[in-house]
Predict the structure.
Amino acid sequence: MKGPPKVLIIDDDESIRKVLASLLQNKGYIVDTAKDGEEAIKKTMMNFYNLALIDIKLPDMEGIHLLNKLKDSTPKMMKIILTGHPSLENAIEAVNKGADGYLIKPVNVGILVKKIAELLKKQEEEQILSEDKVAQFIETRVKQLGHIPKAQ
């Protein structure tokens, strides 16, 4: 990963956005915030984020619905659902819709920081694996092309 990881916090509660942003900035992350789903979608179309923290209840859409939209526009971004309304159904639906984590508010800071670090490490490992696969493909393809008889 080049440079500090970028995190997008999506929550309609300004105080939660500010507290989480301050916490993550102090941990060395670059942080951006969005107050609703539409703002989050616009920001993800214009910027790259390694990870998003998504409130399950947003003023313009459910966090689960936002997961679907973000999965299409930013498939490699890790996503953690934050909820003050926990339920087994919400957790299952969040995971099925692409959430990489599900944490209950008020969020335990230690657990949140640990989960973010785990997901970013996983993301970096997947990136390295993808790059290795591409390099192997190119190497194999170059060898194949080198063995093709040239047209006379």
Notes: Strands lie at 6-10, 30-34, 51-55, 78-83, 101-104. The chain has a mean pLDDT of 90. The two ends are 47 Å apart (CA to CA).
